[in-house]
Amino acid sequence: MSVYDATEFLGQWEGYEVESVRRLPRRRGRSRIRIELLPREDQPGRCSGCGRRVASIHDTSVRVVRDLPILEAQTELVVTRRRLACPRCGAKLERLSWLSPWGRVTNRLAESVARLCQQMAVKHVAQYFGLSWDRVKGIDKRWLRKSLDPVDLSGVEVIAMDEFAIHKGQRYATVIVDAPRKRVLWVGRGRGKADIRPFFQLLGPEGRKRIKAVAMDMNAGYLEEVHAQCPQAQIVYDLFHVVARYGHEVIDRVRVDEANRLRKDPKGRAVIKGSRWLLLRNYGNIDKREDRVRLQELLAANRSLAKVYILKDDLKHLWDYHYPGAALRFWNQWYRRAIRSRIAPLVKFARNLKAHLATILAHCHWWLSTGLLEGINNRIKVIKRVAYGFRDDEYFFLKIRAAFPGNLG
158-238+368-403 in CATH: which number? Predict the structure, then answer.
């Protein structure tokens, strides 16, 4: 077997034969080869319009295409592309199984790049294959579009929606999830009612009628739009967002008030001011023994902080109940303790929460995983860190959707 036959066998470039193979100067320490491919004269081309075999050639052009490495050498293909004189379609580019019509990389290289982009940052994939950052991003973006669009919205009945920060400066986007399947359905910029309207338009009239429940935070814009688009849907406020709001409106406020009260005690004030992270974390998630000791000493020394910390943990148990009657009894007990604490931020929070009690107790009927939105929110932060430097919303949102394809089984 000649070197040309061996190369052709390795390459599997259907409809082409190897004309020449030559080694190129090394680039950045990597070996390179260039392979010239010519169409087989004994095989008529296939029209990219109608798919018929056509023997007549309209014209030809030469294109340099990257392929997967052969024996670890970066591989460039010099491909003679034919435009066929199709009697039905006119002048049409020949359809090739291994190369898209205007592709500068082969289909298999594009697939390898896209698969590697699922595990690595674009920068590292570009370095691995010796491609530019822009080319790798473009390949991955096209692959994601092909694999994710159009989104299948059939059978969607229970959804969850959440906001997340895109960049610093109060710039937000919304993610909407098929809650039972843990599949991201839609991502869009903004967090107002008009911003999420395109999703409901995508659902269509029948799809909107199918929606039975929507889990969300206490976003007024979300609430208004869901009521307008899906009036039959039950609103469910989830644990993750209620506890997050408790941390912001109660624990943070009490911590600041207590620090201000100790203005004449600089050491005590510094301890309280520096305790935000400890107070907001779940006790079980504090790994370092010295941090646990610090938290215990802080709560033992400050009665107000101890009360709001204990009531925060107790409030989480409301989502453990499956029966509305039992959940209501637990709520009434918690509410009385909050009011009797006479801690102003806590009393205000409890009264505001009481106004939304029906949507909180709705979790008894719609048992959604309380960690779903929290997990998605955390994963988005990781994607954002890996994608540092992206200025393309569509690509960023496609990466989020790809990270949550769902459990369809």
Answer: 3.30.420.10
pLDDT in tens, 323-342: 999 999 999 999 999 999 99
Joined tokens for residue 7? 């190369």
CA 358, CA 98: separation in Å to the nearest integer?
58
pTM: 0.80
Domain map (residue ranges) of the chain: 3-146, 158-238+368-403, 239-364
- Per-residue pLDDT tens over the stretch 173-194: 999 999 988 899 999 999 999 9
CA distance 28 to 311: 61
8 Å CB contact between 294 and 288: no
